[in-house]
Amino acid sequence: MSKSEKHILDPNKWVKRYADYLFNYTVTRVDDQDIAKDLVQETFFSGIKGKDHFKGLASERTWLVSILKRKIIDHYRKINSAKGKKEIRMSFYPGGEKKGNWIEASVPQSWGNEAEKIIENKELKAVLELCIANLPEKYRMVFLLKTVQNYETNEICNELNISASNLWVIIHRARVQLRKCLEENWFKN
Amino acid sequence: MISCDEATTICDKNQYGEASGWDKFRLNFHLLLCKHCKVYSKQNDIISKIIGKYLHSCDGQNHLSQKEKYTLEKNLNEQLQK
After folding, report:
1. Using a CB-CB distance cutoff of 8 angstroms, which residues of chain B are in contact with residue A128?
2. Residue B68 resides in a domain
3. To the nearest whole angstrom, how far is the Cα of A92 from the nearest Cα of chain B?
4. B65–A contact, CB cutoff 8 A
5. The pTM is what?
6. Contact list, B61 vs chain A (CB under 8 Å)
7. ipTM surpasses 0.85
8. Which class is A11-81 in CATH?
9. Residue B75 belongs to a domain
10. Which of A121, A154, A181, B31 is the most exposed place for a label (fewest CB within 10 A)?
11. What is the 3-state secondary structure (H, E, C) of A64-97?
């Protein structure tokens, strides 16, 4: 007869074992240290409340991360329903004869021919993080869900109650703005 | 012929592997004729590579301070007593 290995919970060790891991996980996804700290604490609290529901099939860390993921999605939903104050700058003519064309002032400039060097540059990472932080909240959330968290399109649509074409409009506006922000803050110097 | 706004949207979709064959055909046709979107397309690849390289790595550089961990432990212990 085989003994099945069941995981057990040890909340007294959670902070020591998992606080940094969960914090690191969260901060790359919500882009705000204070919110990340709150979400980590809420995750631990939920874990304590729900410890009788733990079946022992997943590891402690995996179980906590799944709680955290739900907290992050709930956070995104709250943001999604709030009105964003930051504006997306227009890059294409919205109407008229030139509808859909690049607005002259927004036309992409050359970044040079050294794509490899660009990708390797560590300072560029800091600029990129800043540019992502500068996106209007709703756009940033959807962009992060799709691009960093690798959620499927239909998963995001279901969670946030938007259509697929809505999603691509948001992703498109976010990427156009990101590209422009990178160009203005990095390549033009 | 699709607009630059439509073309660059397909280009973005393509970064996630979600552009259809028909999308890609229309995009490539547009890129033959539009140098601005051609530049956008190259830069879009670069942006995707940068994101892939930096933002996916859980490089562990974010961590809580000892004080923050102490507070967290204290709060958790309170919850455990309840």
Report:
1. 47, 50-51, 54-55
2. no
3. 6
4. no
5. 0.73
6. 24
7. no
8. mainly alpha
9. no
10. A154
11. HHHHHHHHHHHHHHHHHHCCCCCCCCCCECCCCC
